[in-house]
Amino acid sequence: MTPSRRLADFLAGLDGRVDDRLTGTAIDCLVDTLGAIVYGSRLPWSQSVIAHAAATGADGPCEIVGGTRTAPAMAALANGASAHGFELDDVHEEAISHPGAVVVPAALALGQELDASGDELLEAIVIGYEAMGRAGIAVGPASHMLGGFHPTSMSGVFGAAAAAGRLLGFDGEAMNHAFGIAASLASGTMEFAASGGMAKRLHAGRAAEGGLTAALLADRSFEGSSDGLAGEYGFCRVFTDDPHVDRLTDRLGERWMIDEITVKPYPSCSDIHPMVQAAEELRAEHALTPDRIAHIDAEGPTKAATQNSMDGTASVMAAQYSAEFNIAAAILTDPADPATFDAGRITDDAIASLQAKVRSIRPHPDFDATYAWKMGGRVRITLTDGTVLERTVHGQRGSMHAPLTRGDIDAKFRLLTKDRWGADAIERIRSVRTLTARTLLPESAT
Fold it and tell me: How much of the chain is in helix, strand and coil states, percent to nearest 5?
């Protein structure tokens, strides 16, 4: 019995047995992800993927938000790209991945084709989060990411495969075949953090498509490797220098990945959210204005110091990834508003000038010690009169250590969908939170 098979057996055995508490959390994740899809679907890079999916996919019952209807794999691709299109999607911090943007689009697409019930959809989401999260923590996430792999697109295929497997009624053997196939479909690098481009926006959609394809192939008796996750050349050993394959099955049924989700209050890389929150709190407490600031120094985990220190005025992607830009944005404007990162606003002279006062983003052992299970950061602002203001955040707002309320999640949904749905957003939230046997999407999202 391989580790991959033990995980597959456990997940397959959850059919009809997922606790109501977990499916309740899945509703929060569904609301949050739908908001991200709706907002992301209007963006130019998402529109390119939507056009490709519509042109490539066969006719089908699966809705592309902001587009048309097509077959499951292409709907999963397009909606996943939209969900991940503006750094608004949820995060499993320890796995350093975005499960909602992968699992929810895959589950929605196949659920629509199969005419699944709301209960089946929610169970599929819980199971998908579990598979994706466990693959992500077992691969040694820090080593994995610092080695250049993007965890969302890598471990995401297992989450999409597991969610689809639940909807297809897989037993452990079939689920394990899906995992074995999915291991060959994992892909995606961190090069976007070094030289830009739009590829990151595609990663969640590609993982949703790949994992769904793996499950559909397994459903047609296509066989995958028996230990695709933990074998000698399995996912958790090939893509890291620090594998932890025991985490695939450690405390199954006791520790749930969906309990550990961060719902993002800011549309930026979650690794820098503690710094953003710290800067925002200092601004509010001390009524800070840029003219009073001499310079700013910040500390965080090695990953943030290595991959999140950059000129945020270079592109929208850079702005959302840049620690310097986001610290400046937290002092000058509202870092929670997606409009802060509009292409026409990121080169504003005021924000460029304040960003230039951020002298350093340095690694600190306190934050490496808890990365990425508990994110931390520190901001130190030196004023022109010599006063030094400092704030440390360890376990940022929105994480499992300081979770958003259901009201906060619904308010974020209304913000993200106001241009499309306006006052109707409240009714659409209600329709998701009261899922019926035939309700998968809140009416039409197109």
Answer: 55, 10, 35
